[in-house]
Design goal:
Layout (H helix, E strand, L loop, with lengths): L1 H31 L2 H25 L5 H27 L1
Length: 92
């Protein structure tokens, strides 16, 4: 039973930190208008949503563990693609 609380605590911390990173990246984008920062903010938002939706699937919908992992992994992959693109466009 301790493990579930540890997982929930770590997921919550991931959600808070991901939200803060997304907010700061978006604020930097708003201030500068740099499109790469916009893509960075979107990437971190997608990664953070992946963590959140995996938790919802597990805790609220009582979905199988594999479903939660597929949701999280898919959104993290898409988010990383946005982050990679943001870094690639900055390097040009």
């Amino acid at each position: 039973m301790v493990e579930i609380y540890l997982v929930m605590g770590l997921k919550t911390l991931t959600l808070v930190l991901g939200g803060l990173i997304t907010f700061l990246a978006y604020r930097a984008y708003s201030r500068t208008g740099d499109r790469s920062l916009g893509f960075l903010a979107v990437g971190f938002a997608i990664v953070t949503c992946g963590t959140f939706l995996a938790g919802v699937a597990d805790q609220v919908l009582q979905a199988d563990l594999q479903i939660g992992l597929i949701i999280e992994s898919s959104l993290v992959t898409v988010g990383f693609l946005f982050i990679l693109y943001s870094l690639y466009t900055t390097a040009e």
